[in-house]
Amino acid sequence: MDPGFRVKGVTLFGVDFDRRPEKGEARLGLYRKMLDGLRQAPGVEAASMVAVRPLGGGGMDESAAPIEGNGPENKHLFENVVGPDYFATAGTKVLAGRDRFGATPVCILNQAAANFFFQGQNPLGKHIRSTEPNATRPICEVVGIVMDAKYLSLRQSAPPTIYYSYDQLPDFRWAGFITRSQDTSVAVAAFKDVLHRFAADTPLLPPITMQRQLEDSIGKERLMAALSLFFGGLALLLTSIGLYGLESQRVAQRTAEIGLRMALGAQRTDMFRFILREAALVFAIGVPIGLALMFGASRFVNSLLYEMSPLDPRIHVAAILTLLVAGFLASYIPARRATRVDPMEALRYE
Fold it and tell me: Domain residues of the chain, as ranges?
């Protein structure tokens, strides 16, 4: 799936500037210096700032309403504050307008927010006001529309999102940095160097790649998949061993009958088919029962799946074929053993 941002080559950095003396415009100036230093570092292709990183487990809420048009009076949006060239760095595609903020109070919407506020209209040039209590943020003009990006979870739809610029919010206290490079180690070294030059006494929080961020966000799903694979494989192994034991015991108990049939003219190939045919009867009974149980249990599995049905016929055809192959292999050795029975020994078996 496309999460709405680039995964490979992107590294996210967090810094703790709460104890630094710079505030307001001075803090913003520090951000600009660090950002310029990152962009000039060898091996760093692009760099920007972002308040809420994708799939980071957090977010900010903004209550807003459109000024023009017939859109809804009020809407809770997912809010993010980003630096220049954020969308190019993160790999979020610009669908309309521009991705640069400029000097006047402007904002950028994702497609979900644009459709909500301005359904069937051109949102560019429209204005949105904050409806938060005691809001100090000015009315912003919509200058761009970007593709939807998932910030909270890969399972959930991308939330309607409004993007503001760091340059227009000097009182905003927290910033994270995002870089794009071919080599993550190069980006980490560049950021450490920039932090040492401009804020040497500031602790560096552990950086994380976007690939790792995405993998961590689906950690529960990956764990469930691994456990399901392990226990499914274990169940298949135990089933195969059980079938082998069942067929071996059945052949041993019918040694005299097999000898008699061969003494009366039955061929080895006939006995081989005879044994396998009786083993196939087990599957003819067991597979329908298993399918019925699977249909009953499917509603419990559905919550673990994303954009796929627990009744997908391709999956169950593959499972049935796998069990048939395992059952054939488990029955093959006893069947071959039956064809090697000496008729005279078998008749003396009793």
Answer: 10-217, 220-347
